[in-house]
Amino acid sequence: MSFTQKLRNELCMNENVNLKFAMGEFFALKKYLAQKDKVSVLIKKRLDFYSYLKQKKLSLLDIKKSVKSKRGFLSGTFICCGIMNDPAKNYNLEFVNDRLYDAQDLEKILSSLGINSKMTQRKNYFVNYIREADMISKFLSLVGASVSLMEFENERILKELRNNINRSVNFEAANLNKTIVASVDKSNDIEYIINCAGINYLPENLRQAALYRIKYKQASLKELAEKFVPPISKSNMYHKLKKISQIANELRCKKGDKK
Q1: SS3 258
Q2: Are 177 and 130 in the same domain?
Q3: 18/124 same-domain check
Q4: Which helix (H) or strand (E) holds 82?
């Protein structure tokens, strides 16, 4: 069963409804009467309310006077012409109207309840759509779809968790890549010095750092610094390796070599 159908079913079975909510819902059903196959269950659930409301001459102005009636109107409108994508795939909730003024009225009601929506035209239809997760969550709350809201929020949490994990993995991979590139670069400088002039060409205070760098090529600066006895700071290790690279470049210049 699609998420749209599950949401429609939940709205039809919603028993936490008062007269004002039912008024808005009933008005939406009359507007989209051609979709009555979707609302047979709803009519049975609200029969007492609807029997009473049939005697009233309702207008959109009556619906706009009450927040609860506007919430009911959104519920009835979704049942008749609403679509919601599976939140595991993407965030999208929309209403498809064949009349421009209906879409415009709906946009105003959504806005009056604090829901940001946009409107577009697809062939001969006018579509109000909501893509923001917060706005979809708010809509589900307003129409009383607590089960769908919980499923939506759970999926939203899982998606955010997956995104955070992916960002963390990408960040760690980028850092590891930087460490490896820097390590290879410094190791090449050290090996050049050793091959051309020997390890003793380096000042005594830099030799240990050079040996650690070529021995532990995948180690971070922090890990290398901790191998000293006593350990030195990461900053100190960085400056030692920087000085070694400077010495290697000076030696290249003397010998006319390119890096």
Answers
A1: coil
A2: no
A3: yes
A4: strand 82-84
Structural domain range at position 194: 164-255
Q: How far apart are alpha carbons 206 and 190 in whole angstroms?
A: 10
Task: Report residue 256 as tokens.
Answer: 């006319």
CATH code: domain of residue 62:
3.10.28.10
Question: Are residues 131 and 178 located together in one domain of the fold?
Answer: no
CB-based contacts of 233, cutoff 8 Å, min separation 6: 225
Residue 156 resides in a domain = no
**H or E segment to which residue 125 belongs:** strand 125-130
Predicted confidence (pLDDT) at residue 182 exceeds the cutoff of 80: no
Residue 254 has pLDDT above 60, yes or no: yes
Residue 153 lies in a domain: no
Report if residue 154 sits inside a domain: no
DSSP for residue 200: G
| DSSP-assigned letter for residue 34 | G
- Model pLDDT for residues 71-114, shown as the tens digit of each residue: 999 999 999 899 999 998 889 999 999 899 999 999 999 999 99
Q: How many CB atoms lie within 10 A of CB 135?
A: 17
**Do residues 237 and 225 touch, judged by C-beta distance below 8 A?**
yes
Do residues 38 and 125 share a domain? yes
pTM above 0.85, yes or no: no
Q: Do 31 and 129 belong to one domain? A: yes
Total domains present in the chain: 2
DSSP for 38-85, please give it.
GSHHHHHHTHHHHHHHTTS---HHHHHT-HHHHHHHHHHHHHHHEEE-
pLDDT digits (tens, 9 = 90+) for 14-73: 877 888 898 888 888 887 765 555 555 566 667 667 777 777 787 888 889 999 999 999
